[in-house]
Amino acid sequence: MSELTNLTIADARAKLGKGEISAVELTEAHIQAMEKARGLNAFVTETPDLALERAREADAALKKGDAGILAGIPLGIKDLFCTEGVRTTASSKILENFVPPYESTISANLKKAGAVMLGKTSLDEFAMGSSNMTSAFGPVISPWKRKSNSNAQLVPGGSSGGSASAVSARIAMGATGTDTGGSIRQPASFCGIVGLKPTYGRCSRWGTIAFASSLDQAGPMTRSVKDAALMLQAMAGHDPKDSTSANIALPDFAAALTGDIRGLKVGIPKEYRPDGLSAEIQKLWDDGIEMLKAAGATPVEISLPHTKYALAAYYIVAPAECSSNLSRYDGVRYGLRVEGKTLDELYAKTRAAGFGQEVRRRILIGTYVLSAGYYDAYYTKAQKVRALIAEDFRKAYEMVDVILTPTAPSAAFGIGETNEDPVAMWLNDVFTVPASLAGLPGISLPTGLSSEGLPLGLQLLGRPFDEETVLKVAGVLESAAGFKATPTGVEI
Amino acid sequence: MSVDKDTVKKLATLARLDLPDEELAHLAGELSTIMQFVEQLGEVNTDGVAPMTSVAHMNLPRRADEVTDGGYPERVLANAPDAMDGFYTVPKVVE
């Protein structure tokens, strides 16, 4: 394993700035890593030529002294962000040959900051899933292995599974993810990396293929908290092209990492300790509480009484918005087309052939809960419960500055080890969904290993637009936990 | 609430999904499981609660009603599966 691919973004920036390494060298090392690790299936499309072109531009800018904050940093871009001239599939057959004529704001912002795109990372189809098994291009494999059985292939989590796998396996220094109900935080936890979901409205959704528009939010996936702050700095900001993008000034996120959390109050929600929560996860959480206490913060037990209903509300709201958003795939304007004798037949044949099982299921649920006679009973009811969940958090933040919980109820599971029950799969998101419904910022960072040697993450949640406190506390937790484990085949 | 095969068929028609008949029974089972799971929301007292309509508390921005983009039909049509003479094409809809 090349030394260059083990660097954090912060370290690579320092070396690039001093001229110790070049962006081209750094990019070449990552292109080689990407080729070597093709077995993980982390990328839908690799763009090595484009990467080298951008790296040469970054080197020129670094020389001239006008380089952006991510100049020369090789990144993976989730294949949900439209990239001009580069195929963008959402890991769906229906967009298999879609080449966007425009660039998403997020990928454009990263490009402007000088970042190098290595390729487009795989995801669950249309970001619907928690395992990356629903991709039309095959499952993504986690680089991590169980101690007891190194043959079993594990999932990287989802939906940003390709991004998580690539960052963890040292193919990319960082990657973009999107989080609708946990799609950044859960794969970050499964793969032992840092994943930050910003406040809804912090990052523009323009040019990001939509799943559930009131929940979708882009964020960075990296190997350190500081790297997440740096990447967020480049990604975030007001965008007039997204009417829900927040028009507020960006703080200096990395500057928030002061290491000083003395006097901060950390909420510990009692509803996140359900019966049956594994002893391993309970211990991870308790250890995290102790670490923050030792650093001078005060844990405070809080109650978020409607937590129990978050998954049910989510699985009405998200499919409703999905069925509406995905109605645009009609076989007429872009994407797959299956001919039919009538226009309706063309639509129905195209959509049946183009969408996978999970996506079809969610479209049907969404259609059901939005249909005449059921709209109020399901959709309006869910939006009311959602308001109560947001209110729970608002009240909690009158007493505490940040909330600490586990990210996921378990370590990564194996491909083919899950049962068919869709509801059982959804339980992966039980700790991440409530903050999504409330639009709050959250980060997952690795703080321990399971008995099988697999990474486990803790989650910190903050007030709206207070990523700074989230990052600050995450930085302290990161130092205290000292997570140094690496996946199989990666030696530091 | 249990969802039967006929309901799935109706939903598939509404959603423009041409599903084979042999998939309907399986989907009815899955949808029933899901709908039974979400039933629990009935336990929550939501009297007097306004449904959430905006995640971040912001007013929707306004802008001048002007054309700010466009004028490149070839880019718009670049991904069309079957474009012709600057138009999208569909099967004949008027006899």
Question: Your description of this structure?
Answer:
The complex is a heterodimer of chains A (492) and B (95). Chain A is α/β, with parallel strands linked by helices. Chain A has helices at 9-18, 23-36, 48-64, 105-112, 161-168, 185-191, 225-235, 279-294, 310-325, 343-354, 357-370, 375-396, 422-426, 433-438, 467-481; strands at residues 43-46, 74-78, 116-121, 174-179, 194-197, 217-222, 265-269, 298-302, 402-406, 442-449, 455-462. An eleven-stranded mixed beta sheet of chain A has the order 1-3-2-4-6-5-10-11-9-7-8, sandwiched between helices. In chain A, helix 2 runs antiparallel to helix 3, helix 5 packs parallel to helix 6 and helix 9 (310-325) crosses helix 11. The longest helix of chain A has 22 residues, at 375-396. Chain A starts with 8 loop residues before the first helix and ends in an 11-residue tail after the last helix. By secondary structure, chain B is mainly α. The model of chain B has no long low-confidence stretch (mean pLDDT 92). Chain B is flat. In chain B, strands 1-2 form a two-stranded antiparallel sheet. In chain B, helix 1 packs across helix 2 (21-38). The longest helix of chain B is centred in the first third of the chain and has 18 residues, at 21-38. At the A-B interface, helix 9, helix 10, helix 11 and helix 12 of A face helix 1 and helix 2 of B.
